[in-house]
Specification:
This protein is of the alpha+beta class and 87 residues long. 26% of the residues lie in helices and 14% in strands. The longest helix has 13 residues, at 71-83.
């Protein structure tokens, strides 16, 4: 169930830790030990993004590649797709 209640408030502890509300943790499928990537944007806002998957996990069940394309072949495929309105 997506969390869409808008902004939430959390308090920074004396140890520099934040606690995310349960609804947020559940919506993002965060469990103890989950990794969260963070950054500060150009407006000075803290941006947190769950790091739910390792890159190797994203491709673990991917079918084997049957053929490889050259850069020229990929460029030509992009041009064909653009002409068909797929981009």
């Amino acid at each position: 169930m997506p969390y869409n209640a808008g902004m939430f408030v959390t308090t920074l502890s004396t140890k520099g830790q934040l606690t995310l509300p349960r609804a947020v943790r559940e919506a993002l499928r965060l469990e103890p030990g989950s990794k969260i990537r963070g950054s500060v944007d150009a407006s000075g806002r803290l941006v947190l993004v769950p790091d739910l998957y390792e890159p190797s996990e994203l491709f673990a069940n991917r079918p084997k590649v049957k053929r490889q394309l050259s850069v020229a072949e990929m460029d030509a495929a992009v041009v064909r797709g653009a002409k068909r309105g797929h981009l």
